[in-house]
Design goal:
By secondary structure, this protein is mainly alpha-helical. The chain contains 3 helices and 2 strands; from the N terminus they run ααββα. The chain has one domain. It is found in: Cell membrane.
C-alpha cells in the first residue's frame, strides 16, 4: 500500500514538472498530473529505457521526457478542440 501511495506522489510530481516545463496546465488538476506522470513515465520508459535515477519504479529522466511529450500532445489536442468549437 505504501509503495502505491509513493508511486502516486512521484507520478504527480513528474506530471506537475512536465506542465511547468511546458508552461501549460494539465486538465484535471492533481488527478491530471498523476495520470500525465504515469502515462508519460510509461511512454518515456518504453521509448528511452530505464536509465538515470529510479524512484518508486520510475526512471526519472525518461519519465519526465515522456510526460513532457504527453503534455505537449494533449495541449495540441485541446487547442484543436477549442478552435473547432469557436
Amino acid at each position: 500500500m505504501l509503495s502505491f501511495l509513493w508511486s502516486l506522489i512521484i507520478g504527480g510530481i513528474i506530471g506537475w514538472l512536465a506542465g511547468l516545463i511546458m508552461g501549460r496546465d494539465i486538465p484535471g488538476g492533481v488527478i491530471g498530473n498523476i495520470i500525465a506522470g504515469f502515462i508519460g513515465a510509461w511512454i518515456g520508459q518504453a521509448i528511452l529505457g530505464d536509465w538515470g535515477p529510479v524512484v518508486a519504479d520510475f526512471a526519472i529522466l525518461p519519465a519526465l521526457i515522456g510526460a513532457i511529450a504527453l503534455v505537449f500532445i494533449v495541449s495540441l489536442i485541446m487547442k484543436g478542440m477549442r478552435k473547432s468549437t469557436d
